[in-house]
C-alpha cells in the first residue's frame, strides 16, 4: 500500500476514535499519521525512507522489507521507544502520543495484512501459512485506488463533523478509555523496569 492510502485509511479510522475520547490534537494527529508510515522505514523508496536514507538503509539491510518492522516485535520496540521519549521529553500535552503512534503503527500492519504479499506478524518466526485470501489488494492496483478514494471521501465527511463538533458523538467507545488506562499502566510498569 502506498503512503497516501496508509495515511488516509489510518486517519479515517483513528480520527473518530480520537474525537470520541476527546483527544483530538495536532500532536496526536501527527503521531497517528507518523505511526501509519513508520513500518515502511525499511524500504528506501518509501515516504520516510526517502527522507531518512541512513535509517532506511540500515533497516532494509538488516531486516529486509516487510520483515521486523512489519511485525508485533516492531510494534513492541516502537512502544518502548515511544514511551521513553514521551515521558522524558514531552510535556503533559503529549501524554497519549505513544498510544496514537502505536494505533497508527498497528493500523499499518493490519492494512498490509490484506495485501497480496501479506506480512509476518510473528517475525522472526518466518514460517508463513499460505491461505487463500478472500479480500486482498495489489500495491498500486485498482483495489488500492478504490480504497484511497473511499477513505478520502470518508475523511472529508469526518473533518466536517469534527468542525461541527459532532464527530465524537457519532460513536461511543467506553472500551477505548479502558484500553488507554491499561496502556498507561503498562507504560508506567515499563518505566519502573527501565529505571
Tell me what you see in this structure.
The mean pLDDT is 85. This protein has 195 residues and is an all-alpha fold. The relative contact order is 0.17. Helix content is 66%, strand content 0%. The chain has nine helices and no strands. It is globular. The chain has helices spanning 3-20, 26-37, 47-51, 53-63, 72-89, 97-113, 142-164, 167-170, 174-194.
What key phrases describe this protein's structure?
single chain, 195 residues, mainly alpha, 9 helices
Largest sheet: none
Which H/E pattern describes the elements? Answer: HHHHHHHHH
Percent of residues in beta strands: under 5%
**What is the radius of gyration computed over CA atoms, rounded to a whole number of angstroms?**
17 Å
- Overall average pLDDT: 85
Amino acid at each position: 500500500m502506498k503512503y497516501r492510502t496508509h495515511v488516509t485509511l489510518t486517519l479515517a479510522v483513528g480520527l473518530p476514535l480520537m474525537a470520541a475520547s476527546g483527544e483530538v490534537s495536532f500532536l496526536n494527529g501527527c503521531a497517528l499519521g507518523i505511526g501509519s508510515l513508520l513500518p515502511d522505514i525499511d524500504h528506501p523508496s518509501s515516504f520516510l525512507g526517502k527522507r531518512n536514507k541512513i535509517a532506511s538503509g540500515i533497516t532494509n539491510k538488516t531486516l529486509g522489507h516487510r520483515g521486523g518492522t512489519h511485525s508485533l516485535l516492531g510494534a513492541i520496540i516502537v512502544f518502548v521507544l515511544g514511551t521513553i521519549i514521551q515521558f522524558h521529553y514531552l510535556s503533559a500535552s503529549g501524554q497519549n502520543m505513544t498510544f496514537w503512534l502505536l494505533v497508527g503503527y498497528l493500523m499499518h500492519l493490519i492494512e498490509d495484512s490484506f495485501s497480496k504479499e501479506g506480512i509476518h506478524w510473528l517475525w522472526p518466526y518466518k514460517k508463513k501459512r499460505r491461505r487463500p485470501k478472500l479480500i486482498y489488494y495489489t500495491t498500486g492496483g485498482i483495489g488500492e485506488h478504490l480504497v484511497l478514494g473511499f477513505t478520502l471521501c470518508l475523511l472529508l465527511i469526518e473533518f466536517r463533523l469534527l468542525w461541527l463538533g459532532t464527530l465524537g458523538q457519532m460513536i461511543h467507545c467506553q472500551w477505548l478509555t479502558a484500553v488507554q488506562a491499561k496502556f498507561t499502566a503498562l507504560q508506567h510498569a515499563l518505566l519502573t523496569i527501565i529505571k
